[in-house]
Amino acid sequence: MVQVLHQFRQVALGAVAASVLVAGSATTAVADSPAKVDHSFPTPQPDYPAAAQSNGEQGDVVINVFVSSSGKPRKFKILQSSGFADLDNAAAEAAANWRYIPAIEGGDTTSDWTAVKIHFELPHPEPAATAPAQQH
Known about the structure:
Blueprint: E1 2-5, E2 17-22, E3 25-30, E4 36-37, H1 50-54, E5 59-67, E6 73-80, H2 85-96, E7 100-101, E8 103-105, E9 108-110, E10 112-120
Antiparallel strand pairs: 1-10, 2-3, 4-7, 5-6, 5-10, 8-9
């Protein structure tokens, strides 16, 4: 099972639009906000590498993603490794294919880093079904 926990860092300010009356005219101001995963597009979970599953590998990967002002991921840094290169690579590949909302500063989009956390957990084995006792 792979669980993706989007938006690892919490931010007090969100992208909230507000109308402001300035000298008799209405303008729209947008609060500053960090770059983040765009949940209006699919964010497929990474494939759990078969070798990692058979080797019993699991863990969390925290990836820092540099999001351009157009919302495209440009750079990646592993902030916290799972301890397994194949899981780290699968997480980075998934994050590279997601879409992002760029950061906003002073009402303009800007490039910035955001962190995403991806959790890899081995599936729990199903309990073996026991055959009903036969009557003699």
